[in-house]
Each structure stands twice: as structure tokens, then as C-alpha cells.
Amino acid sequence: MNVLLGLLRRCRGLLLPVLLIGLWEFCSRQGAAQAYAFVPLATIGKGFVDLIDSGALLISTLASLQRTCLGLLIGVTAGLLIGASMALSRVVERVLGPLYHILRQVPILGLIPLIALWFGSGEGAKVLIVSLAAFYPMTLNTYEGFSHVEPRYREVGKIFAFTPWQQLTQVLLPSALPSLNNGVLHALAFAWVSSVGAELFLSTGAGLGNLMMNAEAGSRMEVVIIGVLCIGLLGYAMNQLFSRLSRHLLRWRDLR
Known about the structure:
Helices cover 84% and strands 0% of the residues. By secondary structure, the chain is mainly alpha-helical.
């Protein structure tokens, strides 16, 4: 009995998805119009097999992941440098701060027409969009992390006569790590969403967004559904992977 209860507790998170799948299948059987909007599960399964056999799903997924990772790397690196510079230098904050706070109010997808005009609709423009999406949250969290280091930690560095580099690496950076971790987590989410969004607007090359746009043009709604599921599942998997990694890297916080 205890084993059964334990199994039910573990599977309770699957209850709502199973109910939604059942409701979906029920709606798909209510006529031709409903079957177009709510594609039958059998059709989705067949479409998934076709995409796997043709290699289209793998190519599109890898292209989106590669674009996301490259943009994330650029955005996080730039955000770390700019955010730390603004936090540690009042001159840099006065020069770059107002411009940064103005630009981050503009939705990333709202910049796509301007970026497309300046840089075209190729891979460089898409990576730039992803980089900007990752840059804004990383910069903000880095700035907050370095700006709110407890004064007592700074005093310890002064007592031990740390050099500026030692103060940065042994006092400021460890104190800011939780905030930096949140910045990367937010940057990852924004980068993934913006990568797919850029593919939907700039429909050139491979990617899940392009796959969905082409499927919609060809009235293959099962492929659109598969694309949406892949986007959601991959985003969730990346979020969980980084969350577990960050908990491992920051496990020292529980020992204090």
C-alpha cells in the first residue's frame, strides 16, 4: 500500500497533462473543423515518425539549439562584463546605465524589424536577437549582485589587505554568485524564446520556428503541434538541467 501511495505521489504531476491529452483527443473527434484545430493523436504520432525518418526534426532542433547556445554565450559574457563594470565603477554606470535601462524596456521582438533592416534576415541577425535577449537579464542581475555585497565582506577584504583582483575574485564574485546564477537562468529562458521567435519572423534557414511556419503554410497542423511540444519540452529540459547544475555549484551556501 505504501509503495502504491508513493508511486501515486510521484506521478501526480502527470495527472493534469493526461487529462489535457484526453480532452484534446475528445475535441478532435467532434467533427472535421475540430479535427483541424485539435489534430488527432494518431495523426500527430504519424507526423512525428515522418519527421524523424526524414531527419527534418533533428536538423531543426539542432539548428535552434546551436543558435540559442551561441547567442546565450555572447549575451551572458557581455552582460557579465557590462553589469560588473556598472556596479564597480560609478563613471561607467553614469555613462552606460541610462542607455541600458532605456533599451531594455523595448521588447526584443519589437526590435526584429529594425535588426532585419540593418543586418538582413540571416544567421547573424538571429544570433544578435538571441544575444540581446540574454544580455538584458544577465546585465541587470550582475549589477544587482555586485552592488549588494554585504559591507562586512568588503571589510574582511580590507582587513586582509586584498589587492583589487583578490577583492574581486575572493569577496565580490562569491557574494554575487547567487544573483549571477539567477541571471543565467533568466537569460537561458529569454534566449530560447527569442531564438524561436526570431525564426518565426526571419523565416530563413533551419530551426523549429521555420519548421512550424512551413508546416502552417502547408496546412500540416500536426507538425505545428509537434514543434510547439518540442519547444516546450526542450525549454523545460534546459531549465531543469541548469537548475540542477546551479544547485550543485552553489551547494556551499547550505553549509554556512
